[in-house]
Amino acid sequence: MTAAPEHPTFLGMPPFPAAARVALADTQLRRNLAHATGTIRAKRAGVVAEVDDWEELRQRAAGIKDDTLAHLDEHLLTLEAALTAAGATVHWARDAADACAVVAEVAKSHGIDQVVKVKSMATQEIELNEALAAQGISAWETDLAELIVQLGEDLPSHILVPAIHRNRSEIRDIFRDKMAAAGRAAPEGLTNDPAALAGAARLHLREKFLATKMAVSGANFAVAESGTLVVVESEGNGRMCLTLPDVLVTVVGIEKLLPTWADLEVFLRLLPRSSTGERMNPYTSTWSGVTPGDGPQEVHVVLLDNGRTRALADEVGRQALRCIRCSACLNVCPVYERVGGHAYGSVYPGPIGAILNPLLKGVGTDKQTDSLPYASTLCGACADVCPVAIDIPGILVHLRTQVVDAHRDDSVPKAEAVAMRAAAWGLSDAARMGLGERAAGLVGRFGRGRGMPGGRTALGWLPWPGTRWTSARDLPLPPAESFRAWWKRAGRHEEQR
Amino acid sequence: MSARDDVLAAVRAALVPTSTAAGRVASGVSHGGTGDAPGSNGETSPQEASAGEAVVPSRAVDRAALVDLFAERVADYLAIVTRCAGAELTTTVAAALDGATSVVVPPGLALDVLGAVVDDDLTSAELDATAAVVTAAAVGIAETGTVVLDHRADQGRRAITLLPDLHVCIVHENQVVPDVPNALPRLDPHRPQTWISGPSATSDIELSRVEGVHGPRRLHVILVAD
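^ inputs. structure came back:
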């Protein structure tokens, strides 16, 4: 049995500003991202414009999700009862370790050392593949982009298209060099034509689908009243995994619940249009427990917390749990488009990652997580496209407050705190402020800078520690004369004219 | 404590400040309307009333326009659509099979397909070696060009419509509904379902759509007049 390639992890990633600097220097990455996000933005805008009541749909979706979360304990118990009645075994997991242990135990109870996987953010989040590998179980990703990432021993950089940072020629090289070690080799003379690449993946994975006895999936939605799980996909790898193996384990975040089957009408209209820019995705599979004679005859469901109750306890942040992982916010984000997904140091990149990671993990303990709420210009494009109307900029500001509060008692204060204290000292006294204005005026008169849009001039750099500001931002050249100085000299007289 | 107790306790603890009156009132406003059983009160249920064109009771909808839209939207996904009268179905299916060397049909398909094998627990390997499958469908959705299978006897278990490379799917015009909100009440959430909108596709390479990855690479929908 071939072992799955080593998976690098996000563990030990530097904080966002450091990671972003590296990413920004990669021109190929920026070209790939600009092309891909530009394509998907245009597609989404086209199909969203077709729906007259889009805004109303968003508000209904937000309402359904909020209401479900407000009574989440009741809905979880309803789901558990419905799943059990339908022949599924329900497991609960406090954290990643709990969830991974359940999946590994199910595999071991059947002597299984190879599983196929449907693309699933929850299983990425808990690093299931690594946990299974440690138990001698190979987990094979079957989504095309996940396969590219796995074979390339790479990290995902987008929620919907984890290999968005790769272009067709890079993908061809990965397939040509890595497929053989993982199973069926890429065909001879493979070109970089997307159809040929998809064809190579079809042949490579068909072998695995037919041979593998166990599959692991996530779920886009879990309907509490009927115990119905829903997987929304495009390629058919999901159908393969959900249909052909004997054993199926589905890891479901507890925020995925919907109370009723009818609630799907809202989400099945919002998700495909927001995600892939299609009226409907090619395949949606639904199932409720075990169907005799059809599909897996042993079905497990793992209900996963892993920080979701922490997010739920945050009354401002809890709306992030409405997220249906469409990735529309990534595609419109000017920051994401330039730095890509890796800089966020998580399987959840982009604007949603900048709020979801701190909410799931908590702030104040890890520099990387604490840097994420600042990985935004607060332009608000993400909130405009979000199909469940999450106020991402509002939550970012809320989390920045939490980060600042968490560091108030640090023995070494942050540079920002020092600067603010200095500013407070300078601005709270008229004489000190006048002195500051005169100093700024000198800079304004004699400073050299470069042109900015609108005709103003920006200072190229400030001496340390000001470099920490000017290395990434423009500092407009201060005017030669302050308002107060002008008023003293001429303003009063102008008024009398 | 078990993981179950811990998770439920954590959920309840997280909800303490808001699970009082405010939460209940908000839920009544935002969700009371959609929480009712789907379609339990016919064509004018609250969820349909707020779903745009679905307000129009389907009896009043111009059926011909609806069916035309379905055909057009299915074809948009690069599926093949053929329309025929009931009497022509057998010959239309035969033509759609396009000389496929092996064909499987579900046990409950009320149609004779020449040379077809009736699925009787065929293995995955046998299905993989089969060129085509012919099935019925449960619902057609016009707005999105979607065919829904609920895998009853005339559609067969899920595997038979997954492994062969050509899926010929028979949809009757009276099975076509305007949109997703009208489709859900016709479907039983306890049954496994497959919603199909065109052939298998991926956008994973530079977000350019490529048809044909793992599922049937060709989808041929035959739309039968009532």
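Chain B has one domain: 56-224. The domain at 56-224 of chain B is CATH 3.40.50.10420 (Rossmann fold).
thumbs up if we can close this ticket
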